[in-house]
Amino acid sequence: MTQSSPSPPLLDMRGIRKSFLGVPALAEASFQVNRGEVRALIGQNGAGKSTLIKVLTGVYKADGGTVTFDGRPVAFDSPHAAQLGGIATIYQEVNLVPYRTVTENIFLGRERRRFGLLDWRRMNAEARELLAGLDVHVDVTRPLREFSIATQQMTAIARALSFDAKLVIMDEPTSSLAEHEVSVLFDVIRRLRDSGVSVVFVSHRLDELYAVCDRVTIMRDGRTVDDRAMADISKYELVSKMIGRDLAEVRRAASRAPHQAEAAPVIEASGLELGQALRGVDVAVRSGEIVGLAGLLGSGRSETARVLFGADAPDSGEVRVDAEPVRFAVPRDAIRRGIGFSPEDRKVEGIIPQMSVRENLTLALLPRLTKAGIVDRRRQQQIVERFIERIGIKVSSADQPIRELSGGNQQKVLLARWLCMNPRLLVLDEPTRGIDVGAKQEIQSLIRELADDGLGVLFISSELEELVENADRVVVLRDGRNVAELRGDQISEERIMAAMAHGAAVEAEDGAR
Amino acid sequence: MPETTTTPAAPSAAAAPAVRRKTSWAAYTQRYGAGTALVALLIFNALFTANFLTPANLLYVQLRQAAPVGIVALGMAMVIATRGIDLSVGSVMAISGQVGALALLSGTGLVPAVALALLAALLCGLFNGTLVARYGVQPIIATLILFIAGRGIAQLLTDGRLQNVDDPAFQFFGLGAIAGIPVQVVLLVVVAAAIWFVARSTPFGRYLVATGDNEPAARLAGVPVRRVKLIAYATSATLAGLVGLMEVARVSASDANNTGLGMELDAIAAVAVAGTPLTGGRISPVAVVIGALMLRLLQNTLIAHGVSREVAQMITGFIIVAAIYVQRQAGEGAG
């Protein structure tokens, strides 16, 4: 540990500002890394972690602020310049050349030469030596793609070391590793630290941070909100700083009667497993019930939603609709059973950008809108107009392309796409992300109204407040497993946070220290 | 007729101020460039080319020459709408032509011969479509297989020999006319109208466009994206097969080496030059027909005025590149 080191930090970023099209991504962010330290960098989606790293490594140019690295002010103008300056970045998806050999990948761009020709003997020997230092023993003359992701990562690290990197940034390096590979990676990280190299470790798995990191920097909304020694901060406090909720804040509307508690579930999933993402998730939704699904990034929330909707096939586990086992091959199968799904990323997976509001709204309904195989334009228009009015979608006409609408109105169109089908269950993945406050309120109360009319809703949100306000029951996931289920008056931000942090719904006082 | 129709009734909900669509020069050129060029070429020829404005020339030379490319391009447009491409159309024409000729010469009679030829083409399309839709092979690679192997298959069918086909009933497909209008031209109009109707008014048509515009979103909305792609490739190949038969009928001989040679590029050019983005999500049969007519007339005009065939091809190539450049500009303008 280097808490008491009097020497200036290896990396010192101060007052970093960066905006995209006027929207600030970083506002006065700061970041320090000491020599020979493993530093955790955490924050929710959009907190500014990756922007900060990209500013550091020369992918983006900061609008303001200073960066001091190894005692000198720096402003790298490309990732290559950062690499030559001693900062190496290892991404979650290894960015090497899969069809070239391990050696070539390590020396790409600065091949060793002899009499103007490539000196393969020397390069292979050096590559073997670098990898041996990481306790990896492989045939370096084989193409990289023949090796596991873990070995590919080690190759990336070896490449970083061959540049004499002083700082290695690892962006979610464990997301595609198996458990024993993770422990090998951790050994390497510790070895790097002991040899004086600093490591920045980005991960959403709290246990990993505590296992390998010395200090942590927490970011939220483009700012640095805390910088602490790992040993001095509890998981609970970590999560609450990340999410930005004060420990004592409680807000829950008058508790609703768990009126439908005894009804049979519309959908029931048990033991869902999917790669590293899901390792046994159980979830059930009854008609008229809003079930909140909580968890940190990477906890398996979105994966669960996609499996329930047939967008991804689980490795194992069972899904039952009306107590009848089902196996959805494609979303179309789930839609036929009365399920609708609003995906997390509206732009990428939700809207058909060039199509009109009318066509986007009725896309799923089209098969039911035909007369003798031809779309019944009149009925289509009636339905569209009804929903535009009912939900209050602001459009100039039903023929306006959906890409011209605001995020909130796009989301309303996507909700209407399912509502016009009279669904029994809606799976909503972050339905209010990135939309303005007014539209958010409207969407929340719409969902409540629909649930009161008997619709089952699975509601995924990163905003605990939203879950507390809206859900009848909250299921908390952590590392792809159920860790808690809260209902009625039990639902509070503290309890959800505690479960997200510790993996059990222990009382908040225990977690807060 | 634009590719989407407008519905007059505006909804009663509070109307938000519509974002003004950028009408840059690029967007205009993309939309109307080919049509404007076609009109300009017609005027130029009317003034400076002898015997241009005669029914015989317009119908039996200009339109009849442009129609085969137009029909193949219409099938190509369906594939391109799904964000795909079909390089195999020329080879499929050769296969279909050879199968049809072989069947006729072996005495199956006209209808079975045509049916067999179209079936062969359909199978080619299903092969392409299966590779793309089911196995996720990149369209350009998937259709490259038949582009190369298909012509080989056609040549194998007859050991590469030219076959004379002089069945008068069959020749009607290439040389005949209905009410004074060449068969090819009639077919072009029929196919264009059918695709226009399907694209506009059937769920399949809307799925076609949705798949090309945003495939993951379309899938999550219940669109059977695999089936949609399969049908698009099957249609493209079947139309190519039809045109292959017409070409054999027109020259009264089937030639595995030359039937449909280079057709894939002519068809893609016809689609692209009329403003259909190669990135999918759009289909406009009218624009495709205009594109095919314009490119053919351009070549004929250049050659009629003493420009050599080679130079005419270079100029055509330049215009296609310009059209694609304009497309990129317009695409960026629309965000």
Describe the fold and architecture.
The complex is a heterodimer of chains A (513) and B (335). By secondary structure, chain A is an alpha/beta fold. Chain A contains 18 helices and 24 strands. Chain A has a six-stranded mixed beta sheet, sandwiched between helices. Chain A starts with 10 loop residues before the first strand and ends with a helix. Residues 1-5, 248-255 and 505-513 of chain A have low confidence and may be disordered. Chain B has a single domain (51-334), classed as ABC transporter involved in vitamin B12 uptake, BtuC. In chain B, 72% of the residues lie in helices and 2% in strands. Chain B contains 13 helices and four strands. Chain B has helices at residues 25-48, 55-81, 89-105, 110-134, 139-157, 168-175, 183-201, 203-213, 215-220, 225-251, 263-273, 285-304, 309-334; strands at 163-164, 177-178, 181-182, 253-254. In chain B, the strands form two sheets. In chain B, strands 1-4 form a two-stranded antiparallel sheet. In chain B, strands 2-3 form a two-stranded antiparallel ribbon. Chain A binds chain B through residues 309, 311, 330-332, 335, 341, 343, 348-356, 358-359, 363-364, 366-367, 369-370, 373-375, 377, 381, 384-385, 388-389, 392-400, 403-405, 409, 417, and chain B through 4, 6-7, 9-19, 201-203, 206-207, 209-210, 213-214, 216-224, 281-282, 335.
